[in-house]
Design a protein that fits this description.
alpha/beta; about 20% strand
């Protein structure tokens, strides 16, 4: 099975977790997993290969956890061609902790995983600026930090650095504020989504890509940038960072 063909059963398996969480949760999961290139990239490029404990900051309804569980189930399946030839093995999660401030998202995530007690997923309702971080060998922050002010961004990254195990990895997706009209479109979209979710206007603290890289360096990381907006009108970059 080709990589492209493999995505459809993966999307269906991951989104199936949300059937018990309501029609909105299920439809959102299917649409997001299909339309956001970061989920396929995590598997195709093995960005979390070999990681067993994942901390997902600003996890929403826990899509990353569902995606990784579905991926490992496909990988371990006896079904012919269940896993694409050439793709690295997905991570086998021993623990996944998602932290989310929106109570509606937390409720959807908890309903999604309540019937799978063996999955070792934990969804914490709280603010990533304040909740304690358990040790992890991978931390994922997708499209979250620009909702915090600049000083809070730095504090969160310093706390992530302290929580990561030796040779741990941080995956941080950001928008490049130096990217002109495409960035302005991304920013307008994020502010609209935030307004719908929080019922108030939320200022965004954005940075050019180079400034994000400098911030990571100052917090003790070495980072490399991967474009992560293919197939979308946005200008997102995934920074893969490890302790310097």
């Amino acid at each position: 099975m080709s990589g492209t063909a493999a995505l459809t059963p993966l999307i269906e398996a991951a989104s199936a977790y949300y059937r018990g969480a309501g029609n909105f949760a299920w439809r959102f999961a299917r649409g997001k997993l299909k339309g956001d290139p970061v989920y396929a990239a995590l598997l195709v490029h093995g960005l979390l290969a070999g990681r067993t404990s994942v901390l997902d900051l600003g996890c929403g309804q826990g899509l990353l956890g569902a995606w990784l569980l579905a991926a490992h189930a496909r990988y371990a399946s006896d079904e012919p061609d269940a896993w694409p030839h050439g793709w690295p093995a997905p991570p086998l999660l021993r623990s996944y902790t998602g932290i989310e401030i929106n109570p509606r998202e937390v409720a959807r995530a908890r309903r999604a995983f309540m019937l799978d007690p063996g999955s070792a997923l934990q969804i914490v309702h709280g603010d990533i600026r304040a909740v304690d971080y358990d040790p992890a060998d991978a931390v994922v922050i997708l499209d979250v930090l620009h909702y915090l002010d600049y000083s809070a961004q730095e504090r969160v990254l310093q706390r992530v650095r302290g929580a990561l195990a030796p040779r741990g990895v941080l995956l941080l997706r950001i928008g490049d504020a130096a990217a002109g009209s495409r960035f302005r479109l991304s920013k307008a979209f994020d502010q609209t989504v935030a307004l719908a979710r929080r019922r108030r206007w939320v200022p965004l603290s954005c940075r050019p890509l180079r400034a994000w890289q400098e911030l990571l360096t100052g917090c003790g990381f070495n980072a490399r940038a991967l474009p992560m907006s293919g197939g979308t009108p946005f200008v997102n970059v995934l920074l893969r960072a490890q302790a310097a």
